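Morning!

As promised:
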Amino acid sequence: MAAARFYSIEDWEKFVDIKQELIKVKEQRRNLQQKLEALTEKLKLETEKREYSENEITKLGRLNMIGQLAAGLGHEIRNPMTTIRGFLQMLQSKTDLHTYKNYFELMIEELDRANLIITDYLSLAKDKPVELKRLCLNKLLDDLFPLMQADAYTQGKKCVFEPGKVMEFEMVSNEITQLVLNLARNGLEAMPLDGCLTIKTFMDDQNIVLSVKDEGKGISEEHLSKLGTPFFTTKENGTGLGLPMCYKIAAKHNAFIDVKTGSDGTTFFVRFPASKIGD
Ligand SMILES: Nc1ncnc2c1ncn2[C@@H]1O[C@H](COP(=O)(O)OP(=O)(O)OP(=O)(O)O)[C@@H](O)[C@H]1O
Ligand SMILES: [Mg+2]
């Protein structure tokens, strides 16, 4: 590059001024570029948040519809079930059918179980006011853990619970129990033999977090977008109502469900706000 020649001191001063101006302009350009990048990133995040909310709203809409349908069906199915139960009870008491007493007991028990499931679904669908109690998630998980361990054991898998220090929050305990069991069951079902399911609780910002981590194969992009859609299932005997129930229960508790998935497994995070529900 040819060297600049200066014929007078004024020339030199002008050159320095221009050079300084140029440095300032460059600095400004860099600042503007940084601001632009930050704003672009913010816009991207906002767009993602909006898409997430829109998806959630669509899911909730579908859930409401399905809830109403389930409520109607459940109600209708209960009547014939009551009749069958009555006849079974009557037959059970007949002395000439005494050899089948155990069968009758089993049939009645199974009917009662089916009835209980319908009651649970109805209580979700109705959105009836339920009693919220300030409870500790760790206590609820401690009580549930033997059940989950037994479930894991019968499938040849393991289950561990790592409780963290978490605040109490207002919950409907049988709904949270249902949510935990559904997530744990999915995790167990996703794993091969010897897989280990890890359940943790911890605080993250102002949230009480429940995480359920499995060692399965993960969830594909295509399936990921369908999670929570009623009746979406990839299992031969699945109904596809487990996760929709979880999403509904989470929404009732002002909680959010996040999923992290990869080839080494999937983690479901349920974030409950520490502040009182309804605040
Ligand atoms: N932890 C997981 N790992 C891999 N896939 C999962 C996991 N959890 C859910 N899924 C996928 O999401 C689908 C829907 O789950 P959901 O619990 O709603 O229904 P389901 O388990 O198929 O049936 P059910 O009504 O008996 O729970 C599953 O069929 C499965 O494909
Ligand atoms: Mg399930």
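Residues 206 and 223 are 30 Å apart (CA to CA).

Hope this helps with the figure draft.
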